[in-house]
Write a structure and sequence with these properties.
By secondary structure, the chain is an alpha/beta fold. It is built from 20 helices and 15 strands. α16 packs across α20. It binds one RNA strand of 77 nucleotides through β10, α15, α18 and α19.
RNA sequence: GCGCCGGUAGCUCAGCUGGAUAGAGCACCAGACUUCGAAUCUGGGGGUCGGGGGUUCGAAUCCCUCCCGGCGCGCCA
C-alpha cells in the first residue's frame, strides 16, 4: 500500500494562482466556514471536489459534515449556514444543500470563460504549481547494474521515474534525477573477467564457449576489441590482480555508455550518476557511516536468528556487525559486513543515502523493481538513522512487465544473453508508445506489454487515442484557415487572437464539459505529484481526449455545434479558443509523460 | 512461518487521499461516414468491489481477520 502523503492545500484565504479554479473556490469555501464557526477551526479536512453526478452542480464540499462535530451543530444545519454565507459570493451562482450535508455549488457562467482565458494566457505553464515550494527532491531511478543492456523491466522503472521527476518539477519541486551505479560488487568483477575473455578473443585467441558464471552476451565483444586496441597484448602478461581493475573500469565505462544510449532512446536523462565505488575509494564513506552509527548506538555486534522457512543448510550462526533497523520498524536487524569483512550492499546503500542527506535532500524517492520489496523497511530505517529522523524516503516499487506479442508471451530468458532488450522494444514500437503504455497503469500493478497492441491505431490503444486528440485539434486550426486565413500558425500568436474572444458564447453542454475538465488540470497535477502517481496524468488525458472526440462527433449530426461556423466569426473564434485550450493541456500532459504530441497522424 | 504488492463487469484496468446511484476500454448486441480527419462517435445488456467482522453521518478506500495469486526472506546485488 502506498504511503499516505498529505495533500497540501492552501489554508483559508491564501491567494490561489489565478488559473487554479479549485484552489480559488476552496479558499472561498474555507473563508465562509470561518465566518460560521470561527477562524481557529481546523479546516484542513474541508475539500472541494467535482461531484460524480453533474446534476449536483460544478463543485461540492464536505465542509458541513467534517466540521459539524466541532461546531456542535447538525451537519444539515451547519450546511445551511455556510451555504447562506456562500450565496453572497459573486463567483457562485447557486448553492444547494443535499444528502447528509453536502454543499453543492454551481459557479457563475462567466467563470468557465475566465478559466479558459487563464489557460490561454499561461500557455505551456498552465497547470504549473508551487506546492513543491522549491523544496529539494532526489528521485533515484533505473540504477541498473552496469553489466549489460537494459531489459524491459528496467525500462518501466526508467519511464516511471522520469515522468515522476517531470511531474514533481512541474509542481514546483527542485528535482534531482539520479542514477546509482552499482560498480563495486562482485558482479562487476565477473563483468571484468567476461570482458577479459573477449579481449583475448580480440587478440586472436580461440577462447571457446564462454564458461558458466561469466556473462556470455555479444555486447562484450566491442569491450574486448577496445581493450585490445588500447592495451595491445600488455594485459596478457599481468596477473589478474593487475589487469582486473583496468578491464573492469573500461567495461563499466562502456556498459554505462550503452545504458545511457538505451535511456536516450526513451528520452530519459539523469542529472547525477553516482558511483558506488566512489563511496569506498574517495575516502571510506561506508566505514565512516558505520562508525557514526556505532557511536550513536545503532550499530552493534550480535547474532541473528536463522531465517524461517528458508534453506538452513548453509546457515552458520556467528556474531556479526548489525544495524539496529528494528528501532525504526524493520523486522530484524541487518548485517553490514560479510563474513570476509567486506561491506554488504546494504552498508554501502546506507552510506549512499547518507550522501543524499549530506547533499541537502530531505525528500528522496527511490524507484525499485518489485523483487526489492523486502528491502524497503530497512532502507527507510537507515534514512531515518542517518538523518536524525529529518529525511523521508518513499520507495516506489515498479512491478513486473510481461512482454507479449498478440497475447502470446515473448521469451525473456537471460540465458546466453538472448533476452529481449529494452532497445529492441523501443526500436520496434517507438518511444511514445512504450512510455505511454507503461504509464497508463499504476506502478504497483503488473503490466502486460503487448508489442502488437501498442502500435495498433485504434481506440483500444490509449496512446493513439490521446495523440489523435492533439492532432485533431491541430487539424481544426488547419481547416479554419480556409475561412480565416489570418489565423496564426503559432500557439502564442493564436493565444493573442483568442485573448479578445467572446468566451461567453461557449454555452453548449459539451463545450462546458470540456471547459470543466480543463479547469481540473491544475488540481490533477497537484494531486498526482503529491501522491507520486504519474499514471493519473495519463488517465486524465484519456478522459479529456474522449470528451473532445465526443464533442467533435456531435458536430456531424448537429452542424451548429461545429467549431468552424461560417458567417459567425465571433463564435468561431470562441470555439477555436476552446480547441486551443484542449490542445494546450494535451500537449502539457503528454510532455510530462515524455510522449510526443503530433500535429498530424496521417 | 514472516514481510511487501495485488484481488473491482466475461477480459484489461481506473476510482481524484473516506463522499451521493462504483466508472472506462475491449468483447457482445444495435446504430452513425455527400463530415471541421469514421484512427471517431451514439445507445444497450453486464457488479456479493475476494469472504467476514469493526471504526462513523458515510467504506472499494481506514483497522482487524481469513482466503487466493505474485515477489522476497544473513554473508547476492
Amino acid at each position: 500500500m502506498a504511503p499516505k502523503i498529505p495533500y497540501p492545500q492552501p489554508i483559508m484565504t491564501t491567494p490561489a494562482p489565478p488559473q487554479h479554479l479549485f484552489a480559488d473556490v476552496l479558499a472561498r469555501v474555507r473563508a465562509a466556514c470561518a465566518t460560521q464557526i470561527g477562524a481557529t477551526a481546523d479546516l484542513s479536512r474541508v475539500v472541494v471536489e467535482p461531484p460524480r453526478d453533474a446534476g449536483h452542480g460544478d463543485m461540492a464540499t464536505n465542509a458541513a459534515m467534517v466540521l459539524a462535530k466541532e461546531a456542535g451543530k447538525k451537519p444539515r444545519d451547519l450546511a445551511e449556514a455556510i451555504a447562506a454565507a456562500l450565496r453572497d459570493d459573486p463567483v457562485i451562482a447557486k448553492v444547494d444543500v443535499a444528502g447528509p450535508g453536502f454543499i453543492n455549488l454551481t459557479l457563475a457562467p462567466q467563470v468557465w470563460g475566465e478559466a479558459l482565458r487563464a489557460v490561454l494566457a499561461a500557455g505551456r505553464d498552465y497547470g504549473r504549481s508551487q506546492i513543491g515550494a522549491a523544496e529539494k527532491v532526489n528521485v533515484e531511478y533505473v540504477s541498473a547494474n552496469p553489466t549489460g543492456p537494459m531489459h524491459v523491466g528496467h525500462g518501466r522503472g526508467a519511464v516511471f521515474g522520469d515522468a515522476l521527476a517531470n511531474l514533481l518539477a512541474f509542481a514546483g519541486y527542485d528535482v534531482t534525477r539520479e542514477y546509482y551505479i552499482n560498480d563495486a560488487g562482485a558482479q562487476v568483477d565477473v563483468l571484468a573477467r567476461s570482458a577479459f575473455l573477449r579481449y583475448r578473443e580480440a587478440l586472436g585467441e580461440d577462447v571457446g564457449a564462454i564458461p558458466d558464471g561469466l556473462y556470455p552476451g555479444d555486447y562484450l565483444i566491442p569491450v574486448g576489441a577496445a581493450l585490445a586496441a588500447e592495451q595491445g597484448t600488455k594485459l596478457t602478461t599481468m596477473p589478474e590482480s593487475e589487469w582486473l581493475p583496468i578491464v573492469r573500469a573500461k567495461a563499466i565505462a562502456m556498459m554505462m555508455d550503452m545504458i545511457r544510449d538505451d535511456l536516450a532512446a526513451l528520452d530519459v536523462r539523469h542529472d547525477v550518476f553516482f558511483s558506488e565505488r566512489s563511496l569506498i575509494e574517495d575516502g571510506d564513506k561506508v566505514g565512516a557511516t558505520i562508525a557514526t552509527l556505532r557511536n550513536s548506538g545503532q550499530v552493534y555486534e550480535g547474532r541473528l536468528e536463522p531465517p524461517k522457512g528458508g534453506n538452513l543448510e548453509d546457515w552458520e550462526d556467528r556474531e556479526q556487525t548489525l544495524f539496529r533497523s528494528t528501532g525504526f520498524g524493520d523486522d530484524v536487524d541487518r548485517p553490514l559486513l560479510k563474513s570476509d569483512g567486506s561491506y554488504t550492499y546494504f552498508a554501502s546503500d546506507i552510506a549512499y543515502h547518507k550522501s543524499k542527506v549530506d547533499r541537502g535532500f530531505r525528500n528522496m524517492i527511490d524507484v525499485w523493481g518489485a523483487d526489492h520489496g523486502g528491502y524497503i523497511k530497512r532502507m527507510q530505517a537507515a534514512v531515518k538513522a542517518v538523518s536524525g529522523g529529518k529525511a523521508e524516503l518513499d520507495v516506489k516499487l515498479v512491478q513486473l512487465v510481461r512482454l507479449l506479442r498478440a497475447g502470446e508471451p515473448v521469451k525473456m530468458s537471460k540465458r546466453s544473453g538472448e533476452f529481449v532488450t529494452l532497445r529492441e522494444v523501443v526500436d520496434e514500437v517507438g518511444r511514445s508508445a512504450v512510455r505511454f503504455d507503461m504509464l497508463y497503469r499504476k506502478n504497483d500493478a503488473v503490466l502486460d506489454f503487448d508489442l502488437a497492441k501498442v502500435i495498433e491505431a485504434s481506440r483500444d490503444n490509449p496512446v493513439f487515442y490521446v495523440q489523435y486528440g492533439h492532432a485533431r485539434g491541430q487539424s481544426v486550426f488547419r481547416n479554419a484557415r480556409t475561412e480565416m486565413p489570418e489565423l496564426p500558425e503559432s500557439a502564442a500568436g493564436r493565444a493573442e487572437l483568442f485573448g479578445t474572444a467572446r468566451l461567453d458564447r461557449l454555452d453548449d453542454a459539451g463545450e462546458l464539459a470540456i471547459l470543466k475538465r480543463i479547469a481540473l488540470y491544475p488540481r490533477l497535477i497537484e494531486a498526482a505529484a503529491s501522491a507520486h502517481e504519474p499514471h493519473r496524468v495519463a488517465f486524465y488525458l484519456y478522459d479529456l481526449a474522449s470528451e473532445f472526440h465526443s464533442h467533435w462527433s456531435r458536430g456531424k449530426d448537429m452542424p451548429h455545434l461545429r467549431f468552424i461556423i461560417q458567417n459567425d466569426r465571433e463564435l468561431t473564434v470562441a470555439r477555436l479558443a476552446l480547441v486551443q485550450g484542449i490542445v494546450t493541456v494535451l500537449a502539457s500532459g503528454l510532455a510530462l509523460l515524455g510522449v510526443e504530441a503530433p500535429d498530424e497522424m496521417r
